[in-house]
Design brief:
281 residues; alpha/beta; single chain; Formyltetrahydrofolate deformylase; Formyl_transf_N
Amino acid sequence: MTQFTLTLHCPERSGIVHAVTTFLVSNGCDIVEHQQFDDDVHGELFLRTEFTCAGRSAVDDLTREFDVVARDYAMRYRFSDRTPDRLLVMVSKAGHCLNDLLFRWRAGALGAEIALVASNHEDLRPMAEAAGLPFVHIPVTPATKPEAEQRLLDLVREHDIDLVVLARYMQVLSDELCQKLQGRAINIHHSFLPGFKGAKPYAQAYDRGVKYVGATAHYVTPELDEGPIIEQEVQRVDHSHSPRALATVGRDAEALALSRAVRWHCERRVLLNGTRTVVFR
């Protein structure tokens, strides 16, 4: 049995689920997991179905045959098999998110394959190479930024990358690059934004006596740190936390939120809904 996932969204109307299940049953498929969400505010239906299919092994065949059903309901849909997504992880100097992703990847819990690591600094080369991964150094200056971003796109093409993960990559991507990677790049930042900007957000948070520390994983868009949110992790803190302790809690939150977002994306559990997301956990 080959296992597939169907994700779709379309305008709400009666008969959608019946049409999907009828198609699957008529093709000898067995549903393993099914989730749906009716967005009554915008009149849209979102659906994710995992199924096995005897005698089927090609996504293209299912796509071609389902297209007749999809047209009747104005569906935007995708069939996927169990082939793991290939990741390009972008980093700078902080290694906590990369370390967490590497651990989950080697444990088989990431739902994807890390293909390589790229960075604008050399600091994390030992970590990547110790995991047996290629490490590509791409220096970035204001003068060389266009060339650096083109090199990134070249890596995406050369290594058949499905998802770019900005694991504390401390460079702002150009609007053009964000548009080219739309829906295929995930970023992580501390949830203090935009309240605490700059290089030392945790020191600012300490000065204001925050009671929560958090992190947000989101899709990359030209609007800096304002892309559709996939996951947020929040932990309570109090007056006893120093700036260093706050940063430690924050790093844990960042690593957890990012790894969840990456896994859910690669398992086709995240569907875009305008500036929001529908996440089938």
